[in-house]
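Please predict the structure of the following assembly.
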Amino acid sequence: MKTFEARLLYDARATLGEGPVWNDAEQALYWVDIQPGLLHRLVPGAGVQVAADRNWQAPMPIGCFAFTRDGQILAAGSDGYGYLKPEGDQAVFQSVCDPEADKPYNRFNDGKCDAQGRFLAGSMASRHDGVRTPGGFYSLDPSGTCRTLLDDVSTSNGLAFTADGRTLYYIDSPTNEVAAFDYDPENGTIANRRVVARVDEGPGKTPDGMTIDIEGNLWVAVWGGSHIWCIDPATGDRLAEIRVPAIRTTSCCFGGPDYKTLFITSARVGLSDEELAKSPLSGGVFAVEPGVAGLPFPRFGA
Ligand code: CA
């Protein structure tokens, strides 16, 4: 198995860095720090800590976002789906719909667009006064119609589509499974769930965000694992490991001029002072060239 070491790109010290999206037109990496509701834009430079980063403050936690075909940013967070409009240092939120308006303690987590321009995003179950409120997995159509794909998920996380758009890989973190669904690109429906890999590494370590490369292999961030696995979904085999100098690796995406750089986000939330002393770069954004390319992100819209 091949092993790679990720390098620090930006010492962000993010609480919960997540949702990296490469913007091809700007040659910039956008990502979010979920809990403080910060949308970041990072322009990679050469070497360590020379990347230029700026951020915008959203009015609530933002789990994920996608660029739209007309150059806007569509996000999903604790108030459902909506547009994020950078204005000065703020990111104004313009609501589109909130399929969990009746679940005040849930919030949206990870999401991505399909090739037809729908934005699929899932939420996290919550527990309040001893009552569990399940999360869901949703698809927002460019027309503004939101439909439920799954109605009982715990921590909806990584998703990735195959290049032909007919298979959706999906992680509900506490299952420790990477699942696959048949995806119907015309109707935007999912069916036939099966498990393609297990990521079972012990307490506190669960599969989180993921992306896919042009060979069809998955790159899965392991929360609590300090690494990314490259997994062949046809066999479940691990083909490569990327070691990251951060305990809570959260997500990754391909980008750069040739889509050959894998960008990795991480988190500091919940780490003890001792863990932070051992892993001071936790919360940073990292990069590595693992020898394979990814594909541009589909955009939201018709
Ligand atoms: Ca995540």
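The chain has one domain: 2-288. Helices lie at 273-278.
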